[in-house]
Amino acid sequence: xxxMHTMLPQTGxxxxxxxxxxxxxxxxxxxxxxxxxxxxxKETDAGKVVGAIQRAPRLRDADLFLLQxxxxxxxxSSVAEETARRLGYFVMFEPAAPDVYDQGxxxxxxxxxxxxxxxxxxxxxxxxxxxxxxxxxxxxETPWGGLRVWNAHLDTRINAAERLEQIQPVIDEASRHTGxxxxxxxxxxxxxxxLKNVVPIPGGPSHGAVIRNAMSHRGFETLPGALNTxxxxxxxxxxxxxxxxxxxxxxxxxxxxxxxxxVWVQVRL
Length: 269
Known about the structure:
- The protein is of the alpha+beta class.
- It has one domain (about 5-269): Endonuclease/exonuclease/phosphatase (Deoxyribonuclease I, Chain A), CATH 3.60.10.10.
- Helices cover about 20% and strands about 35% of the residues.
- The protein has helices at about 45-55, 55-60, 80-85, 160-175, 205-215, and strands at about 5, 15-20, 30-40, 65-70, 90-95, 105-110, 115-120, 135-140, 145-155, 180-185, 190-195, 200, 240-245, 245-255, 260-269.
- The strands form four sheets. Strands 5-6-4-3-15-14 form a six-stranded mixed beta sheet, with helices on one face. A five-stranded mixed beta sheet has the order 7-8-9-10-13, with helices on one face.
- β11 (about 190-195) and β12 form a beta hairpin.
- α4 packs parallel to α5 (about 205-215).
């Protein structure tokens, strides 16, 4: 039986993080850590999630998952926590708001998770179907030292300048840290201009370019070119940026339970 532990809440953290024993795996000699960012699309069946992970070699061997739109029904346990329990991983989960059961953020990690903090992001007036946007920050205790990570999910119907304004506090906070750092998540980047946050007009400025430039200005790099992380419209919505880390390999991996593809990267500490 897997032992369950509890992590004490950190400042701004709404509840305890459940931990399970790390999944034993042979450590690589090249200080490599593999990271996945994936929008869960509100999937509630942990069996589907685990099955999809186990059938995809790069997901199966991943050390860290940054997950968005994590569902927890109206129970105390989220699909991320159940997935971590089955994988034998550490996990932390934060719901978006009270009585909101399908918009949470989670970290699922082979390595211990410490120093968890929640950062609320700018509330944008979407006129309908608005959300409470936030980011999760935490440190991973890898065998080669600490890795600070941020997981964020940004709004949909906002323009490039407002999108940057929403993620800017995360960029600022990450820039103040030292050592290996990683920022990832579903940034909902597109090439549209949103009239009054409702009507999409094609041919707007590239949101991805705006975010990429802002990250680069602070020393964060990402994969070259555009990735197809949202197959329905062939859009690049999901990102991973790093600083004081080296990219070793990367790919986009299908996730059958989600309308997003997963972004997978391997980095060297």
